[in-house]
């Protein structure tokens, strides 16, 4: 009997059942081909209490690209004793002698896709707890064919192209993919069976009477091609919405982008990813949809003396160019005449199905809204700065913007059927019509921020169609902020103007968002964590 248990113990050790054996190691990435990083026992379940360290080294001077062929860890969950910290994978590297994290803690059913290092040495840590296990992961590592900020030509990994080479009239990819400028013009919906200049109704714009938004409908797949899902990188849970404004820039709300408790400091770019060209967020293999890492997060400045909602905007720079096609294209920027009182506009997103159910919809949905006059808006917000806000209300009773969809665009069509974004979903909801920030007042900030952060300024200008001297009173000083750095003169550090809202103004407590599930769980509980890590103080 002793001999039997001794043999059994050896077998368990060899098969990696011991949490701290057969775990981790040193892995070399070849100049050609790939290396594999596997969890213990893969493809069988990994053990409890694992703590594995993988040291990955590539050729001198090379960058390393990581992609997962399989990824299945314990899903986040709660218990009677509180929130359970789930199993995770973490990527770090050494930069200038310091260890730098370049991924969030990845867990659940997340995928590692096109994650690129800045050097040739990376450390991956895998940690499991003593609860539920899963099949683990198989991650490949290879020399990155393109540096950060560039994308591979399809079918030609050795040839790279950048955002400023897209649709420039020069064929850079052998197959000409960089010049296949399908639907590159802004504001054009993908509705092949409809006349794009015809008036939109709930029937022509959506699928059916099935309610997928509060009083709205499910959208025709890919009919709003600028729509973007901003997802948590660690759990792949949808966090906010956004819109494509250029082929490396996403626009969303500032309160979706900052670190916990400080609305003037942007989150690290690795905390989020964006999914473009998507309709069903539960379909990881949806044709035409792509998940893209971020390179930079830029918050709009917050001048002292105003509420955060007036400049509740954030720019996301993608780590590689966005290739336009029938399902993916930019929205147009507004001018002073857009969003006229009485005009019908549209909001889209993947937010709550209804007010009482804390559950996101899987498929994109939409709702038609009516722009209110200043007089109508003043009835709900007597102290609001209406030069910087636009109020909308459901076109019919019971309709309203999607709960939980901060950062999603509100768009209005002009007489030619071209859609322009007039604001982002920021505040309000329920019985009070939302008052969202006017995008027109921050156009100069967008131009300045993108010029400081990229050489592709002309493409952004063209997409935005900026008019010189178009800023209006109340617009933030476009020269007051450098891309990637919040406006240091806008308020005293550590004392954001979160308490400055007055009666009738939107809740400026939106600054309590974008929290990690660890700290958020302690404050708000499991239900709100599962909801998608957004603050209820913002309404959405």
Describe it.
Residues 23-144 form the CUB domain. The chain has 540 residues and is mainly beta. The longest helix is centred in the first third of the chain and has 13 residues, at 2-14. Helices cover 11% and strands 28% of the residues. Residues 1-21, 193-213 and 454-540 have low confidence and may be disordered. Helix 4 (443-453) packs antiparallel against helix 5. The chain has helices at residues 2-14, 202-205, 374-380, 443-453, 457-464, 517-524, 526-532, and strands at 25-28, 35-38, 51-57, 64-72, 77-79, 82-84, 88-95, 98-101, 115-116, 121-127, 136-143, 150-153, 156-162, 217-218, 227-232, 238-246, 249-252, 258-259, 262-266, 272-276, 290-299, 314-318, 344-349, 365-371, 389-394, 409-413, 419-424, 435-437. Among the domains are: 2-143, Sandwich (Jelly Rolls); 227-321 and 443-450 and 470-538, Thrombin, subunit H (Beta Barrel).
């Amino acid at each position: 009997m002793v001999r039997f248990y001794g043999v059994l113990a050896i077998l368990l050790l060899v098969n990696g059942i011991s949490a701290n054996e057969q775990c981790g190691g040193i892995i070399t990435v070849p100049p050609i081909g790939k290396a594999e990083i596997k969890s213990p026992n893969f493809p069988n379940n990994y053990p409890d209490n694992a703590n594995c360290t993988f040291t990955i080294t590539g050729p001198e001077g090379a960058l390393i690209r990581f992609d997962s062929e399989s990824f299945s860890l314990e899903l986040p969950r709660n218990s009677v004793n509180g929130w359970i910290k789930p199993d995770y994978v973490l990527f770090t590297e050494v930069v200038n002698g310091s260890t730098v994290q370049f991924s969030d803690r990845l867990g659940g059913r997340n995928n590692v896709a096109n994650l690129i290092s800045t050097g040739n040495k990376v450390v991956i840590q895998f940690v499991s707890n003593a609860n539920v296990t899963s099949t683990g992961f198989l991650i490949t590592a290879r020399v990155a064919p393109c540096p950060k900020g560039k994308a591979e030509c399809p079918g030609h990994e050795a040839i790279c192209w950048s955002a400023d080479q897209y649709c420039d009239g020069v064929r850079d990819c052998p197959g000409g993919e960089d010049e296949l400028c399908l639907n590159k013009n802004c504001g054009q919906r993908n509705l092949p069976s409809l006349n794009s200049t015809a008036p939109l109704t709930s029937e022509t714009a959506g699928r059916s009477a099935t309610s997928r938004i509060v009083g709205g409908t499910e959208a025709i797949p890919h009919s709003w091609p600028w729509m973007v899902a901003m997802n948590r990188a660690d759990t792949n849970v949808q966090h906010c919405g956004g819109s494509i404004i250029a082929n490396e820039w996403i626009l969303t709300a500032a309160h979706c982008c900052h670190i916990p408790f400080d609305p003037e400091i942007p989150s690290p770019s690795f905390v989020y990813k964006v999914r473009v060209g998507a309709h069903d967020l539960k379909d990881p293999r949806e044709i035409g949809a792509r998940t893209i890492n971020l390179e930079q997060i830029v918050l709009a400045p917050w001048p002292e003396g105003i509420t955060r909602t007036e400049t509740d905007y954030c720019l996301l720079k993608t780590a590689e160019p966005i290739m336009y096609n029938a399902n993916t294209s930019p929205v147009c920027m507004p001018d002073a005449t857009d969003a006229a009182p009485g005009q019908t506009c549209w909001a889209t997103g993947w937010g709550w199905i209804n007010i009482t159910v804390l559950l996101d919809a899987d498929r994109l949905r939409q709702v038609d809204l009516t722009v209110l006059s200043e007089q109508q808006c003043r009835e709900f917000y007597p102290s609001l700065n209406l030069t910087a806000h636009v109020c909308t209300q459901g076109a019919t009773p019971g309709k309203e913007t999607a709960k939980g969809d901060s950062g999603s665009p509100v768009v209005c069509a002009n007489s030619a059927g071209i859609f322009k974004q007039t604001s982002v979903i920021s505040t309000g909801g329920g019985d009070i019509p939302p008052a969202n920030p006017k995008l027109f007042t921050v156009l100069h900030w967008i131009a300045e921020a993108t010029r400081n952060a990229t050489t592709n300024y002309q493409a952004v200008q063209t997409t935005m169609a900026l008019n010189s001297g178009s800023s209006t009173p109340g617009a933030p000083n476009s020269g007051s902020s450098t891309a990637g750095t919040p406006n240091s003169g806008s308020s005293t550090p550590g004392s954001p103007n979160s308490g400055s809202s007055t009666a009738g103004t939107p809740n400026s407590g939106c600054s309590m968002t974008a929290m990690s599930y660890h700290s958020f769980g302690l404050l708000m509980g499991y239900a709100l964590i599962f909801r998608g890590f957004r603050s209820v103080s913002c309404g959405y």
